[in-house]
Amino acid sequence: MKIAVHIDREVAAHPELVQIENGYRNPREQKPGAVQRGHYCEIEAVVENPDAEPASPCAAAKTAIIVYGKRVGTTLTVCTDNDCPIHDPRAAARQAANPAPTMKPATETETEEETEERKAKYAQQRKDYEAEQEAEQNRRTEERKQEFERQQKEHEAERVKREKLYKARTAMFDRILENAPTTFTTAQLRVFLRALVNLDPYTFTDDVAEHFAGEDENNNQTAEEILISTLDGLADDKLTGFALRLVFTGHTSIPRESEIDFLKEAEAVFAPPQPKKTTSKTQKPTPIKAASKPATKKAATKKKAAA
User: Fold this and answer.
1) pTM for the whole thing?
2) Whether the Cβ atoms of residue 144 and residue 88 lie closer than 8 Å to each other
3) What is the pairing mode between strands 61-68 and 75-79?
C-alpha cells in the first residue's frame, strides 16, 4: 500500500515520468499507458565527470518509474526507441550497412543547372531513403507486435497451467489434513521430519498464523503468539493435524524441477489416492416373448359359422 501511494505521489508531481512494468501479468491487469518490458531499454547512469553538465544519452532517453515488477517504485532512465542506434546494436549495424544519403559537394566548374540537378537528385535519394526506412520501421514494429502477442499468449497459458496445478496441490494439502491420523506411523514420521528439515525457519510460521488469525486486521499478535494460542486450545486428537498444517503449508507452492516435492511424499503416506471404482456394464437379458397360443377349436367353429 505504501509503494502504491509513493508511485501515485511521484506521478502526480512529475507527469512527464514514463510508467513501466518489468514483470509479466495478465493484460487485463496491466496499467493503462504503461510501457511493457521488451519495449524499453534501461540506461545505466555512468557519471565520468560529476561537475559536467548531465548529457542525455540519446534523443529517446526519458526518466521512468517502475509501477509493477522488480524494484517497483524505483525511478530510472530508459530509452523508449526500439530502433535506437545507441542502445540497440542491431539498429546500429543496420544504420552502418545502409547509411543515409549525402549530397555530393559542388565542383569548381559546376553550373547553376548542374547545381539544381545535384540538389534534386539528393532530395530524391533522401525521399526514397526515408520511405524505405519508414517501411522497414513499420515491418519491425509489426514483427515486435506479433512477438509480444505470442509471448503474452505463452505467459497466459503458463499462468493458467500453474494456477490449475496450484489448485490441485491445495486440494492435495486439504486431503492430507482431512486424513490426519491420531498418531504417526514410522513412514509418516519420516516424511514429516524430512519436510520439517527443509522449511525456511524465518518465514514458515507466517502463512500458518495467517490461516488461524483469519481476517482480523486488529490482531497485533506475532505469528508465534497466534500459533501458541491456537495450540493451547486444541483437543488432543487435533494435534497431528496442526503439526501437518504447520510443516506442509510451506510446501504447497509448486517446486522447481530440481527440488523435492515434499507435499507429494506426504500424500503418498497420509492420503494415498484411491483407485477409481470401475463398474462393469452387464447387458440385460433380452426378454423372450411368449409364443401365441393357437386358436381353440371352439373359436374356429364360431368363425366358420359366421362365414
Assistant:
1) 0.57
2) no
3) antiparallel
